[in-house]
Design goal:
heterodimer; A: alpha/beta; seven-stranded mixed beta sheet; six-stranded mixed beta sheet; 12 helices; globular; B: mainly alpha; 0% strand
Chain lengths: 445, 391
């Protein structure tokens, strides 16, 4: 077992952590699949509005890589297809027909012995988009040869789901998924866990368990890879979200696509934050309506650092497993920068009296105006990779491709630097700059 | 409060794009966000943010400087009373000193604000609170008798040449406060060096600083003996620490400088690496020179490391100038090298150069110049590490 101990980072003490109980499933009348959740693809629809589809049927494919198709995430009618600017497909909404879904479960067991079998099976079942890759954090290319595969079951992001709790009853499907994933690479299959969790993994000879200790972003795949097997230029590493393991496992063992996941609804303005049995692309309204303490809120699909702003009538993103809700605040306090501190301020700097002691009610306020960057060692406190983030950002801003590659742009992703933006006193959006750099090198390839 | 919010919101409309006052938007933005904290929202990326911002960061540096101001004013009064041979209370000494400090402070801030606001308006960038720190630092590095017109020119030079022509805060190469002081040091040497300017007394009164004692000895002796021979001021180790000695306004009391430094380190604003490294650099070089002292007639070589720390502005420069984040190195390894070199250069300039008894100002400016080079090599080693992994 590999052990890594991350020192730099910060666990944000945010209020509204979900209590450890799984509530009864909410009724999901509609679910949505949004091509916008997937980077660098050109979707082409295979269905029309009002078509009736079954779970796993192909819905659209990527014109740039036609073998990769996306599955229907529900059985039922395609009730609406929403287009954005220049007829970009924004969202495909399914009306869930529960009676159709229950009929789908014909168990078929297929022997998958090598890499090609598995890839073909996933492509044929339209399930390939569950496999993503680093660098670029996009859907993997089936023709690539990944250096290794990594799955993180150690979620350290604020208010994210605790896999040790949500996946506790999925041992068999997880093992089945990992067994097949291992066949996809000649390298190692890393699975990151918190100390003392998922003990059964260490008995599996095809898994390299990585025990991670430390504050966020210790559980991010980028940070773990940087510590154990850095991504060099031209390297590709594949990864799967932890909560998708049971879905893949069930597919490999029984041939069934079961889009169920356990999600959490949490945040300072949620009345009783808790876990729910849910499904991919679930409607946010069915969880948020009536369970928020105020009206002026921002509903986020994903966690508060890297999630996507959504609305009451929005849907959970394809890769997301949590809904976070915070107050949308426009409050202005009189000479706020002179505030002595107390429970109304949160900072990783010792600049307020008695801060960070109790769970803090974060809002969407930026807490300061944007200013030119002053490097007071804020980023360094929360960025645990051996990358000079300051130099990297400069190279991105000056559009210097070579320098970006040399400074390790391939190893970073937005989520790894989210805490840098959180702590930055100049309110720089570090993640957006990293994404700009990744886009630049991606399109240059 | 609602009234204030309303006024600001209404007046803000006049400064929007296309409106007659739009050119002065940075000025309005500064006033607006000083009075009421900003209601800017996190757009994407992290939806939540830390409560620390640049306003508070810069304000904390100013807080750390306030004790130096108070003691500086008292020290001016104290030395004046001593020179005149009169006895006076702490309060009257303090008030006397304030009549010197306040005009200096006001003129510096007026000059600084004019430059910063003009550039913000022309360049269309926000007014950066960093200029408050520069303007708060400049008076503390001045002798009490500095002519105000020289101060005005010096401050303007420091802010414009030291900062604005490079693009403002965040992109400047030299510490603006030290640029201002260096400019005045070379442009108006009679008012900022020598023996006549460091204490206020009757006409023609001279008061040599501790540094100039071993620099210009009448007869060679060790620094300790030379200090003990001085009767005009108390240059004992304890009083060098406590600071009732002639010098620049804000640097003489080492206790308050240290407390300011500890405060900034505790808050996470200033770099402890730079401060510790420069003290190490100074101790190392001074120790080395002590070993060489027997072979030389230069009394400066006999100054012990502790004396080096306590005399002159070394501590003040290290704590408040060297650790300035923008002009120092931007990597943690670099901060050690940068600090160590400042300590070394300070001693070298003090001891070996006959023209400038105080070395810390030039040491920091020289290292400001080399900071990007240090960073370049440290980042380069990271690049080489990555390239070798690829091979």
């Amino acid at each position: 077992m590999l052990k890594i101990k991350v020192k730099k980072g910060h666990n944000i003490n945010i209020a509204g952590v979900a209590s450890r109980e799984i509530l009864a499933p909410q009724k999901n009348n509609t679910v949505s699949l949004s091509p916008e959740n997937f980077r660098y693809i050109k979707p082409k629809l295979l269905v029309k509005e009002n078509d009736v589809v079954k779970l796993g049927d192909p819905i659209f494919f990527d014109k740039l890589s036609p073998a990769v198709k996306w599955p229907a995430i529900a059985s039922g009618k395609i009730s609406k297809i929403i287009y954005g600017d220049r007829r970009a497909i924004k969202e495909i909404i399914f009306s869930v027909d529960a009676s159709l879904e229950s009929k789908d479960s014909n168990v078929e067991q297929k022997k998958l012995s090598n890499k090609d079998d598995i890839i073909n099976y996933l492509l044929e079942k339209n399930m390939w988009p569950f496999i993503t890759q680093r660098p670029f954090n996009k859907v993997a290319d089936p023709s690539d040869n990944p250096k290794s595969i990594i799955v993180s079951l150690a979620n350290t992001a604020p208010l994210s789901v605790d896999y040790n709790f949500t996946l506790s009853s999925n041992k068999d499907t997880i093992i089945s998924a990992l067994e097949n994933l291992k066949k996809l690479t000649e390298g190692k299959l890393f699975v990151a866990v918190n100390p003392g969790e998922f003990d059964y993994l260490s008995d599996l000879d095809f898994v390299d368990v990585v025990q991670v200790e430390g504050p966020h972003p210790a559980g991010n795949v980028g940070v773990i890879l940087n510590n154990i097997s850095p991504i060099n230029s031209k390297d590709i590493v594949w990864t799967v979200q932890g909560h998708h393991l049971p879905i893949l496992g069930k597919l490999f063992s029984d041939g069934i696509f079961d889009p169920s996941i356990t999600i959490n609804l949490s945040g300072p303005v949620v009345n009783s934050p808790s876990y729910f049995k849910s499904r991919i692309g679930a409607s946010l309204e069915s969880y948020c309506k009536g369970s928020l303490s105020i009206d002026q809120v921002r509903i986020i699909s994903g966690d508060v650092l890297t999630g996507k702003e959504s609305m009451m009538n929005g849907y959970l993103g394809f890769y997301h497993s949590s809904i976070s809700v915070i107050e949308e605040s426009f409050d202005r306090s009189f000479i706020g920068w002179l505030h002595p501190g107390g429970s109304s301020k949160y900072s990783i700097f010792n600049a307020y009296f008695g801060n960070n002691k109790s769970p803090y009610n974060f809002t969407t306020l930026q807490n300061g105006s944007h200013r030119a960057f002053v490097p007071i060692e804020a980023w360094e406190k929360v960025f645990p990779m051996d990358i000079y983030i300051n130099a990297l950002l400069r190279s991105i801003e000056s559009n210097d491709f070579e320098e970006m590659e040399k400074l390790g742009i391939y190893e970073c992703d937005e989520e790894d630097v989210a805490l840098c933006s959180f702590v930055c006193p100049s309110k720089t959006d570090v993640g957006a700059i990293i994404r700009k750099g990744l886009d630049t090198v991606y399109f240059d390839q | 409060m609602n009234f204030l919010k309303k006024i600001l919101a209404e007046s803000g409309k006049l400064f929007e794009k296309g409106k007659p006052l739009s050119f002065a938007y940075p000025l309005w933005e500064a006033t607006d966000t000083i009075l009421l904290s900003t209601n800017s929202q996190n757009k994407s990326g992290p939806h939540i943010r830390d409560n620390m911002d640049i306003k508070r960061t810069m304000f904390f540096v100013v807080i750390a400087l306030i004790p130096c101001y108070l003691f500086g004013a008292y020290n001016i009064g104290y030395l004046h009373s001593a020179a005149m041979g009169i006895s006076s209370s702490i309060l009257s000494d303090f008030i006397f000193g304030m009549t010197y400090v306040l005009p200096i402070l006001i003129v510096t801030f007026i000059a600084g604000a004019i430059c910063e606001i003009t550039f913000a308006v022309i360049r269309k960038h926000e007014i950066n609170e960093g200029f408050l720190v520069s303007c708060a630092l400049i008076p503390l590095t001045m002798p009490p008798d500095i002519p105000l017109w020289q101060l005005f020119i010096g401050t303007s030079f420091g802010i414009i040449i030291g900062k604005e022509i490079f693009g403002g805060v965040g992109t400047n190469v030299f510490n603006p406060a030290l640029t201002a002081r260096a400019f005045m040091y070379f442009a108006f040497p009679t008012k900022i060096s020598g023996e006549k300017v460091w204490a206020v007394g009757p006409d023609g009164y001279t008061g040599a600083t501790a540094l100039s004692i071993p620099a210009n000895p009448t007869e060679y002796d060790t620094a300790t003996n030379l200090f003990n021979q001085v009767t005009q001021f108390d240059f004992s180790t304890l009083n060098l620490f406590w600071g009732l000695i002639p010098g620049s306004i804000g640097e003489t009391n080492k206790l308050l400088v240290l407390l300011g430094g500890l405060f900034l380190i505790y808050c996470g604003i200033a770099s402890w690496r730079i401060m510790i490294a420069s003290v190490l650099g100074l101790v190392f070089t001074a120790g080395l020179f002590n070993l060489l002292a027997d072979y030389s007639t230069n009394a400066m070589l006999t100054i012990t490391p502790l004396q080096h720390i306590l005399i002159g502005s070394f501590l003040f420069g290290t704590v408040f100038m060297a650790s300035e984040p923008v002009t120092s190195t931007h990597t943690n390894k670099g901060r050690w090298i940068y600090g160590f070199m400042i300590g070394m250069l300070t001693v070298i300039i003090r001891s070996i150069n006959p023209a400038y008894p105080e070395g810390v100002m030039l040491a920091i400016l020289i290292m400001n110049m080399f900071a990007p080079l240090i960073d370049y090599y440290i980042v380069k080693s990271n690049i080489n590490m990555r390239l070798s992994r690829n091979a």
